[in-house]
Design brief:
Elements lengths: L5 H5 L10 H17 L3 E5 L6 E5 L1 H6 L3 E3 H9 L6 E4 L3 E4 L5 H5 L2 H4 L2 H11 L4 H8 L3 H15 L4 H8 L6
Antiparallel strand pairs: 1-2, 1-5, 2-3, 4-5
Amino acid sequence: MRAQYQQLIDSFNHSKLAKKRDAIASKLELLMDLLDTLGWLIATEHPNQANTYLLFGESANVLGKNQIDGGDLKRILKSIPSANFLHRSVELKIWRDTLDQQQTENPIDDRLSKREMQVFNFLVQGDKAAEIAEALGISPRTVEKHTQRIYEKLGVKTRAQLLLGFSNSRSS
């Protein structure tokens, strides 16, 4: 799988991170493999060609090529609902075409209380317990208890699992 990410890894040669290139490349490869396994499509800005993106894993299979013009990618992503994005910046785009089968069959809204859903929405945006507590007018300890119940109900053990598995399921 390493060859698949070689262009992205090689781009570290031109950055100030070159000294840590191998360690970063190894971690990046694991992360890309995990995201690909979980069904996320990945595109990164090409390090040497302006307005071109490299496609990785399933995104290369879905689109039938290893790189794409920035304008073409923008047109494709325009049709994707914002809730389907894990990350969207100029340098990196991570998205799903569709929701997971499990999440479609058993929506999060049906499993969580109204307050848990409010906390959930803040969690997937990356907010800390203190920030959530202030926004909702409750104590940080109450937020932590809601978070524990959310993890139990959704079958996750960490915030990373929550973000990777459910960030595309946010409700408004």
